[in-house]
Amino acid sequence: MGQDLEYDLDERKQTILRAIISNYLETGEPVGSRTISKLSDLNLSSATIRNEMADLEELGYIVQPHTSAGRIPTDKGYRFYVDTVMSEKEESVKSQEVLLERVDKLESLLMQVAKVLAYNTQYATMVTTPMLRNKQIKFIQLSQVDEEKLVAVIVVGDNIAKNKIIKVSRPLINEEVLKFNILLNTFLQGVSVDHINLELMQTMKKQAGDYADILERIFEGIVDVVKEAEEMKIYTSGASNILKYQELGDVEKATALLETFEEQIGLNELADETLKSEDGDHSIQIYIGDEAPVQNMKDCSIITSTYQLPEGAKGTIGIIGPKRMDYKKVVSTLKNLTDELDNIFRAGERGEN
After folding, report:
1. Which of 83, 121, 159, 278 has its CA 20 to 30 A from that of 4?
2. How many Cα neighbours within 13 Å face the side chain of 114?
3. Residue 89 has what pLDDT?
4. Domain residue ranges of the chain, discontinuous segments joined by +
5. Cα–Cα distances in Å, from 299 out to 38, 84, 216, 289?
6. Could you give the CA distance from residue 104 to residue 7 in angstroms, rounded to a whole number?
C-alpha cells in the first residue's frame, strides 16, 4: 500500500538509512553510529555518520528511543524501505520446501495455507474464503439421503458449491426428486439470487402442484446455502509467533493482539480493504504501523495479497508481524504461494489429480 511519498534524501543518507533498517530488522536492537561505521561498504567516520543520523532523525525517518541509545526506524523509515529497497531487482528465491498438497475441499486447502505460511515465516497469518461476486445460480442437484431427507448441492456463478440437508414433510421416491431437479433448474438456472422474488416463487409453486409445500422447504434450504456462501470465513494461524518479538511482548499489547486473532476483530475490514485497494492480479499491499486498518495492529506491519478462483471469486491472504519483519522474504513467499494456488485451481478446473 504505497503512499507515493517523495524522499528528500541524498545518496549518503539513503545508504545509511538502509543500513540502519537492515541491521534493526536482523537484531531488533537500536543501531548506533559505531555499528554502521563497521559495515564494509561504508567508508565514513563515526562522526560523519552521527551527523547524518541526526539529520535523518530530524527528517522523521529514525528515532532515538532512549538517551544515549542507538536509533530505530519510524513508520516513515519503514515506508522508505518498502518503497525503495523492495522495488529494486528481487533476489532469486529458492523453491519452497513445503509444497501445498492438493486437497479436494477449498476450505481445507485454505486452512492448510494459513498453517504453512505461519510455519514458513514465523509470523501470524490469516486467509479468507473467497468473496462471492457472481450470485447467479449455475446448477442445483437434489439427491435422496433417505425417504424424508434430501441433500441439495447448489453451485453458484463463481463455481462455489455448497451442500444442505433438507428435511421434507413426507416420503419421496426417485421420480419425484427428479421432477424437482427439473423444476428448480428450469426456473433458477442462470438467475441471480438477488432476482429471486415472491412472484417467481409463486409461479414455481403452481408448477409443483401438490408438492408446493415440499418445494417451499427446498427453496428455504437453497436461500440458506446462498447466504452461507456470501459470508466470508477467516482462518488464522501462528498468532503466538508474533509474541516472540520483544517490541510486541508488552502484556497489554500481546493480549490485544491475541484477542484480535481469537475473536477476529477487524480482520473482515482488513480483507475488504485489501480487495478494494488491489490494482492487479495478486496485488501486494503493505501496511506499516498506523497505516494498518486494524486498531490492535498499529504496532505491527501487515502484508496482504489476493488469490482468485478460475471464475473470479477472490479471497485475501495476510501475514502479520513486527515492523522489523523480513519484508523481502514475506513478499516472495506470498508471490510463490499465489502462483502455487493458481496452479492448484487450474488443475482442479481441468479435473487433474
Report:
1. 121
2. 22
3. 36
4. 11-87, 106-131+233-350, 137-230
5. 30, 22, 52, 5
6. 48
Nearest to 353 by CA among 103, 97, 96: 103
Thinking of the domain 106-131+233-350, which architecture would CATH place it in? 2-Layer Sandwich (3.30)
Query: DSSP per residue over 102-160, as a string?
Result: P-SSHHHHHHHHHHHHHHHHSSEEEEEPPB----BEEEEEEEEEETTEEEEEEEETTTE
Question: In angstroms, rounded to a whole number, what is the distance separating the alpha carbons of residues 5 and 130?
Answer: 32
Q: Taking the model in full, what pTM does it have? A: 0.68
pLDDT in tens, 310-327: 767 788 999 999 999 999
Residue 85's pLDDT band, with cuts at 50, 70 and 90, is: low
- Could you give the residue ranges of the DSSP H alpha helices within the chain? 11-27, 33-37, 46-58, 75-84, 106-121, 174-188, 198-208, 212-230, 251-263, 267-277, 327-350
Task: Give me the pLDDT at residue 281, please.
Answer: 59
- Fold of domain 11-87: Arc Repressor Mutant, subunit A (1.10.10)
CATH no. of 137-230 = 3.30.390
Cβ atoms of 277 and 1 closer than 8 Å: yes
121 with 145: CB under 8 angstroms? no
β-strand partners of 163: 153
| Cβ–Cβ < 8 Å for 301, 289 | yes
137-230 and 11-87 share a CATH fold: no
Q: What is the pLDDT of residues 219-254, one digit of tens each?
A: 888 777 777 767 788 999 999 898 888 888 788 888
Letter for the amino acid at 242?
Answer: I
